[in-house]
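Reviewers of the previous submission asked for a worked example of the structure-prediction workflow described in the proposal, so we include one complete record here. The input consisted solely of the amino acid sequence. No template or homolog information was supplied to the procedure at any stage.
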Amino acid sequence: MSINSAMLAGASGMRANSSALAAISDNIANVNTVGYKRLRNDFTSLLNSRNSQPTYSAGGVMSHSSPLMSEQGSAVASSVSTHLAVSGNGFFVVRGRSDNAGTTDPYLYTRAGQFTPDANGYLQNTAGYYLQGWPVDATGAVATNPTDLSALQAVRVSGIAGGAEATSTVSLSANLQSSHELSQAVVNGTYDAADSANNMASGQVTPDFQVPVQVYDSQGGLHTLTMSFLKAGPNQWYTEVHMAAGDIDPGGSTLVDGQVATGMVAFTPFGQIDTANSTLPTTITIGMAGANAGPEWDAGLGLAAQTITLDMGGPNSPGGLTNYDSPSILGTSPANGTPFGSLASVDVDDDGFVTAIFTNGLTRRIYQIPLAMFGNVDGLLPENGGVYRLGPNAGALTMRGAGVGGTGEIKARALESSTVDLAEEFSNLIMTQRAYSASSKIITTADEMLDELIRLKR
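From that input alone, the workflow returned the following structure tokens.
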């Protein structure tokens, strides 16, 4: 009977609008939830009548709510360095446990990037899910895999060992006075770099000019590398590069008294260094103890081999070592390398690399955060905590670095706001309320009509 179908249509209208009200309520409740994707309500009519029937039988309506996954929330600045937002396509990969996760701990996907370290230093968002990333090895390489989730690890930003950086380059900017008088050792012909009784490294011969430079070894220890100069004649200077005698072993070479290199530095008549006729090596290698191939660290220090490049400039380069008739003076002698430093902070760049910053100024990449892409993001299925799991209609999973192959950028110190528009939701709330009330009127009207029908037999 048409009246019965009308009552059923009214009931379906109330049921559909109840569902719509629940979705609107969720939207309003999550207006401040990070990474929340608002729900859209779609109503579908149901048709029970056939064209051949003389009377119409109502079918009613049904409601379906689905998150609008493709909508982008605005990025809101945050003061926390590990708060992350995705600008564009892609999802963070997360898991419910930081370590010892098993098959019962699935990989999930989220845009809620309010990650902060837990008690063990693992990045965890407020819903309790742990951020996953590709580890960066000691050489800085990342073993990326676009489909293998097992290649990911929970991102940990504490318990990272500190580090030191050995000196590899010493730059020298100085002038050696061209008119400097020859020392008595040169006049008498007694100067001999290989003789401890007649060289500068031992202190028996006073250098005409000396430059001490602080350098770091492989363990961050500090040493003084001294460059001693003795005028040998016009446009020529004897040079000894040496350290403390107790730090250096000759290792089978002719070097003595802590020397690591000796030779002659020549200059052109225009006061510029003459690299072609200079015999002082520009690269110094201090071997590991026992190498026996040249100067090496003393065995008691336990240091790794170290190569130091001496940058003394050239004819066409500014600064460097010069030979003008002006008092000998040191300009600068910068050297790279750092002492040991502990972890100071962690930063994330737009490419998704998590970088550890140490107190000595060193930086080291430790993870790269991938973004997960899907053929159909609307096919993802929502779970508690603002996360999503793969659904049958989501398509294939692909993980890429930020900004690669259509993925968005990762913004550090930012969070993606909810996509809910309160003005729109309040408007939908009013319309849903009226539709629900109108559907209820269908039932009361149909009830009155049925009551009239029943009273006909009385």
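The CA atoms of residues 43 and 63 lie 4 Å apart. We consider this example representative of the routine output the project will generate in years two and three.
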